[in-house]
Amino acid sequence: MKRAPYLVFFLGPFAWQIATSLWPEAELGRPLPSTVTLAAYRSVLHGPFSRAVVNSFIVAAATTALCLVLAAPAAFAVAKLRFRGRRMLLGGALAISMFPPIATVSPLYLGLKAVGLRDSLAGLVPLYATFALPLSLWILTSFFEALPDELYRAARVDGCTPFGAFRRVLLPLAWPALATCTLLIFIASWNELLYALTFLSSPQRRTIPVAIALFGGEHREPWAEIAAASVVSTAPLVALTLLFQRRIVAGLTAGAVKE
Amino acid sequence: MATVSLERIRKDYGTQAALREVSFEVADGEFVSLVGPSGCGKSTTLQIIAGLEEPTAGVVRIDGVDVTARSPGERDIAMVFQSYALYPHLDVAHNLSFPLENARMPKAEIEARVRETAQLLGLSEYLKRKPRELSGGQRQRVALGRALVRKPKVFLFDEPLSNLDAALRIQVRAELKLLHARLRATFVYVTHDQAEAMTLSDRIVVMSRGEVRQIAPPREIYEAPKSRFVAELFGSPKINVVAPEVLGLARQKAFAAVRPESFVLGEGTVRGTIALTELTGAETWVAVDLAGARITVRAPPDFAGRPGEELRLRPTRVLWLDE
Q1: Are B319 and B257 in contact (CB under 8 A)?
Q2: Closest Cα of chain A to B103: distance in Å?
Q3: Pairing of strands B4-13, B16-26
Q4: Quick check: A157 and B77 CB within 8 A?
Q5: To which H or E segment does residue B48 belong?
Q6: What is the rounded CA–CA span in Å between residue A12 and residue B170?
Q7: Which residue from A116, B125, B265, B316 lies 20 to 30 Å from B215 (Cα-Cα)?
């Protein structure tokens, strides 16, 4: 029973949220309701919120794909090839991700407007890449560094080009790290509020965090719907995490200890 | 089949010189070992032959053709690595076929070659296994097979036996020698183990601090080392290098060097005190304190001397060294 306090601490908020989404609105304060209802879920999924789920999925999936396609070869190059400025590339990537997002909102707004990507989902993808790309670059670099140099050399002697050695030997071995990055990027993009709220104005383009933030009406806070929407948007992340759980740990600790 | 020649190879890492003016030739079908202490540049030399490192200056020729600017895949070489570097995500069959696929060889020929190589190395039953499901010795064979399957001009070995346990190492060492005799291919072999170099090679290239110290067949390296460094690197226990006066010899050069087996015990004019005896089975190594030096001599296994007793010695073969 020593674990009980931790379980309450971590699972409590989720339990509360699920309860809020199921209790009839008039009985929200009660520990046990007279009846449970799925009304909130029905209204959320049939309303504009379902559109937000689709939007979030598109943005998060596109960001993830973009970042992995760019970060994996870059990380391989930093880890296994010798060229000037390797450390600078890593340091620069880290420095860029240090900027507080709020400080970049105004210039980004002007920039997106200039290229005609304001109020579009496509405009969010490169913005999310600004924090997701450095993160994946760092995770993947440490993973590739942990793979033995001799593997790369063997592939080169066996007739691979540097990129061929990456694609045929190192990349297939990197999937724990790729799974880790996929999850972290997907979760971060899925949950991002500031940029999405600032740069999207059309209701049909809202992502989940924006939709939830703007749920409130003028005279009434629809708590049950907000809770239902939160549950709906958290569920896929939890499922994804459980699915990849062991791989994430392997990916995060790769290179940390000598095997 | 091919020759390899290195001409005045230099390699600098920043301001550090890893190799300075390394030149040597490997004849067609010859087995040449590069030997030296760690950091002497032997592995760097091998990587330059492979094309995995670019020399700062100098020329690498394979079969007379300047390959200095060619990538490893274009040099028609194969390499066996210390860690074996098997591809963990591919089974044995695909580890073997990997270099052939890169060379865009027809499928039927790839299959034939993989089968032939697997049979040669006794790997036929394991073709569907992943490297992690193999023992150390089997992994070593797969690594060897991946090199053999290509029938390259030159085989390069980077300490291929150092991850095996002692018994297996001696067995595989003998197999390598048989393999070389059978293939008559050109082998360049890097090792820090002098016994490995002695038993395997046609010629040995001794290196230290980025320079070649001596190139000669094993017997010559052992019997006529040009320097104290080479003399002390080969032979176990180590050769005795002392001032000539210690052995009662007239000074011809700065040092007199005598191998432990080059002494007759119980006669002669040199007198010492036994410090220690070590029976190894086939012989006894006796540490003897002379005036001014302790030396090691070989004695028969039934040697009866005890520490503290006096022993007379006569050196039978003295090597004279300058440095």
Answers
A1: yes
A2: 7
A3: antiparallel
A4: yes
A5: helix B42-50
A6: 64
A7: B316
List alpha helices for A47-192, DSSP H: 49-80, 86-96, 101-114, 121-146, 149-157, 162-165, 171-173, 175-191
Residue A223 CB partners (closer than 8 Å, separation 6+): A20, A25, A28
The pLDDT of residue A258 is 40
Tell me which residue in B47, B77, B87 faces A169 most closely, judged by beta carbons. B87
Q: How many angstroms separate the CA atoms of A40 and A33, rounded?
A: 15
Paired sense of beta strands B77-80 and B154-158, if any:
parallel
Does the structure's ipTM exceed the value 0.85?
yes
Distance in angstroms (rounded) separating the CA atoms of residues B116 and B95? 14
How many Å apart are CA A140 and CA A177, to the nearest integer?
Answer: 6
* Total residue length of chain A: 259
Contact A136, A71 (CB under 8 A): yes
The closest alpha carbon to A63, from A142, A124, A2, A153, belongs to A124
- Check B79 against A153: CB less than 8 A apart: yes
Q: Taking CB atoms and an 8 Å cutoff, what residues of chain A touch B102?
A: 158-160, 164
A73 cis-preceded (ω within 30 degrees of 0): no
Considering the entire predicted model, what is its pTM? 0.85
Alpha-carbon distance of A150 to A5, in angstroms, equals 48
B24-54 tens-digit pLDDT:
999 999 999 999 999 899 999 999 999 999 9
Chain A residue closest in CA terms to B81:
A150
Residues from B contacting A (CB-CB < 8 Å) are: 47, 50-52, 71-73, 77-79, 81-83, 85-89, 98-99, 102-103, 146, 156
Q: In this structure, what DSSP letter does residue B60 have?
A: E
Which of A81, A158, A259 is the best substitution to test chain B (most B C-beta atoms within 10 A)? Answer: A158
Q: What is the pLDDT of residue A257?
A: 47
Q: Which two tokens stand for residue B148?
A: 């053999």
CA angle B99, A81, A93 (to 5 degrees): 135
